[in-house]
Amino acid sequence: MADKPRILINGKDMFWSLVPLLALIALVAIASGNCSVGLNQDPADNKVPAFDVVTALDADARQMPFPIRRPPTPEGWKPNSGSSDAIEGHRVSTVGWLSASGAYVQLSQTDASEDLLVPYLGGGDTKYGDIGATGTREAGGRQWVTYETAEGKKFWITDFGNVRVGVLSRGPDADIETIAASVAKQQPLDA
C-alpha cells in the first residue's frame, strides 16, 4: 500500500497509530505489578506507600528549634507521609497516617503561634479570623481547641508553651482524639 500524502493524514490516523503504543504501555505496567486502582480502600493495603515516622520525627527532633514528640502508631494505622515546612519563619514538622477507619490523620508540631497555625492547617488562603474555634476537648490530660473549616476539615490544637501541636483529619473525631491523646502523653524526643 502506498503511503498517504501528508495532506490526507488526519486525527483518525494518529489515533490508530497510538493504539498499539498504549496497549504496549498498559501491558508493561500490568506485568510489572506497579499499577493498582485502589478499589478496596483498605489502609493496610500494601499498595499504600509506607513512611518511616520514627526516623522522620527523630531527624526533626535534631533539626527543629523546639521539642518534638513522637506518638506510637496505633494498631491498624499505617504511616504514609511526612514533611518539614515553614510558617512565616517558624518551622513545622508534619507526619500523617491512614487510620483504621481509612481517614487521613495529620500531626503538625511547630513553634509558630496558634494564630499562624490555624490558617496553615485550614489550608488555602484562609486567615486566622476565617476559621473560628468550635469548642474545646480534653485528650491525653490536655485541653485542645477545636476548629472546623467550611470544607469539613477538622483540627485540634494544644499549646505546650514552647510548641503548638495540631492534629487534623476529615475523618471521625475518634481518629483525631487517638493521636491527640497519644502525643500529649509523650515526652519530647532527645535533640
Fold blueprint:
Elements: H1 11-32, H2 53-63, E1 78-87, E2 90-98, E3 104-110, H3 114-122, E4 133-139, E5 142-148, E6 154-159, E7 164-169, H4 173-184
Antiparallel strand pairs: 1-2, 2-3, 3-7, 4-5, 5-6, 6-7
Question: Which terms summarize this structure?
Answer:
alpha+beta; 191 residues
Can you describe what's shown?
The chain has 191 residues and is of the alpha+beta class. The chain has a domain at 53-184: Protein Transport Mog1p, Chain A (3-Layer(aba) Sandwich), CATH 3.40.1000. Helices cover 28% and strands 27% of the residues. It is built from 4 helices and 7 strands, in the order H-H-E-E-E-H-E-E-E-E-H. The chain has helices at residues 11-32, 53-63, 114-122, 173-184, and strands spanning 78-87, 90-98, 104-110, 133-139, 142-148, 154-159, 164-169. It has a 7-stranded antiparallel beta sheet, with helices on both faces. The protein is elongated and about 80 Å long. The protein starts with 10 loop residues before the first helix and ends in a 7-residue tail after the last helix. InterPro entries: DUF4245 (IPR025339). This is DUF4245 domain-containing protein. It comes from Gordonia namibiensis NBRC 108229.
CATH architecture of one domain: 3-Layer(aba) Sandwich
Total helical segments = 4
CATH topology of one domain: Protein Transport Mog1p, Chain A
> Shape, please?
elongated
Largest beta sheet: strand ordering: 1-2-3-7-6-5-4
Helix-strand pattern, N to C? Answer: HHEEEHEEEEH
The radius of gyration computed from the alpha-carbon positions, rounded to a whole number of angstroms, is 23 Å
Largest sheet: 7 strands, antiparallel
Q: Give the C-level CATH assignment of one domain.
A: Alpha Beta
Going by helix content, strand content and strand pairing, the class is alpha+beta
**What is the share of helical residues?**
25-40%
* Residue windows where pLDDT falls under 50 for at least 5 positions: none
The strand count comes to 7
N-to-C CA distance: 74 Å
Q: Overall mean pLDDT score?
A: 87
Protein name: DUF4245 domain-containing protein
InterPro entries: DUF4245
Pfam families: DUF4245
